Amino acid sequence: MLNRYPLWKYLLILIVLLVGLVYSLPNLFPEDPAIQISSERGDATVDERQLERIRGSLTEAGIDIKAVERSETSTLLRLETPDAQLAARDRVAAMLGDDYVVALNLAESTPEWLQALSASPMTLGLDLRGGVHFLLEVDMQAAVSQRLEVNASAMRELLRDERIRYRDTDIDGRTLTLTFTDAEDRDTARSLISREFPDFQYQNQGDGRGAELAMTLTDQAVDEIQDYAINQNLTTLRNRVNELGVAEPLVQRQGPDRIVVELPGVQDTAEAKRIVGATANLEFRLEARPDTPESETETLPFRNTPSRDADLMRDVIITGDQVSNASRSFDENGRPQVNINLDGTGGTLMNRATRTNIGRNMAVIYIEHKTRDRVETVDGEETIVREPYTERGIISLATIQSALGNSFRITGLDSPTEAAELALLLRSGSLAAPIYFAQERTIGPSLGAENIQRGVMSVQIGLLLVVLFMLIRYKVFGVFANIALALNLTLLVAAMSLLGATLTLPGIAGIVLTLGMAVDANVLIFERIREELRTGLSVQQAIHAGYERAFSSIIDANITTLLVAVILFSIGTGPVKGFAVTLSLGILTSLFTALLVTRAMVNLVYGGKPVKKLWI
């Protein structure tokens, strides 16, 4: 029979529409402006007494707290308005001081029954939701110094293997200086080292016991080191941002020594800053023997107990650069630890060092590059000067029981959070040079709300014009088309929510375009039905012929547009990709609603019934 669907097809359409409705619902629950409080190191939160003080202070300032949520590492205060959020952040930060980080946040308010179905709202881009913008500066001089430290360690090992006596090693800028007991040893060392390290310019200085070999990096070598540092830091930062799970992040180079990082809608800006800006790395060194010359040793404190220290060899066995994988776990006593897997080179170096030093202690050193600000007065004006410094602390000093290989574990960490962050940093790769925050901007939700309001208004205006046109032009069939259009928008939102696609302003433009294209298919079908009626076909035959004969034109037009959207996505950047995603999904949902949903509604109203006149 013409214009009748079997029951299973009606049920399938109904199920798809119900699923779309459920998974689009979370977008009706806007996020709450909130502030998140965590300790500077991210391993503790405010206690109950401090929380009561915060409540009292905010109440006194006329700021209402909507809800309080606590976890092991942070406390979240939900507030009513963005203005209250900003005022609360400033007030709480002043109360708690530098020991805590008070960050702006947007907390999801999706009902629990929807969360149980894994339903969540669409991810919004930086232009809609806000987020953080970091401008990072790479310390190029430190990159050169670190490379010289590695070269110095390799040179000392080479000289010891060849039994050439040296007295001291000194690094100044881009120059590495070795001091020898006499000129003969210096000349022998120069001949040996120059073959292994061609990136230096060599110069003899002094004679006798003051004989020195000064090695200065060439300009080309410095440029290569600095270029490697910026590119390696870019790769590492991208890996760290991916570990954070941020949608549509931006990590790109700006100028010779700067990197821009933009994180849309981060849930915890304090954690983002800790992870992105962390320059933690590890070094593995042997503990010095009592008879080791003082020039070859370095005294470092323990990280957890600064009053305790140990004498270590200056030579480094391996660093965090040789770590291929790292994960957090707990030992048999429930204490946090990090399981380490080394790459081939790192495993070989570790095995060679431990195989010949069984019974000797080996230290794991945690290194952090930080900055502190100090005020200087120049010509009567106060200026803030950023002063970089490095903290080194021993986190583990254990006896080597047997030769180690590619896998082992690190203990002695303060908390599970610290173990998780250290594992993340080692997994994503260490930075080739320290980075410092040259600029930090938090893009608040007020800007995003304004953009969303304008975007939604454009969708509403476009939708209203289309609805009016379809009603006036096609009457009852216009009602079918408008219902399908609303369902199309619902399915599009649900698809973007399920896939985790990021909605940006260009994406909203794609939605507006989708609304216009969605009715194109209905216009083709309805005009074809009109033509068939004019040729003298019956109402049922005209409806059937209209859908059948318009099908090929609709498919051709939409597939062409879909191919363009795929090309835009493959070669475009962030905003263009956002437009392509919404356009592609919109084409698929439009085909479903225009060809199946409107046909189902027409069949239910007219199918199998004697109809003399069609209101179209």
UniProtKB/TrEMBL annotation:
It is a multi-pass membrane protein. One of its GO terms (biological process) is protein transport by the Sec complex. One of its GO terms (molecular function) is protein-transporting ATPase activity. Keywords: Cell membrane, Membrane, Protein transport, Translocation, Transmembrane, Transmembrane helix, Transport. The chain crosses the membrane at residues 455-472, 479-501, 507-529, 550-571, 583-606. Residues 230-287 form the Protein translocase subunit SecDF P1 domain. Residues 300-433 form the SecDF P1 head subdomain domain. Belongs to the SecD/SecF family. SecD subfamily. This is Protein translocase subunit SecD. It comes from Halomonas shengliensis.
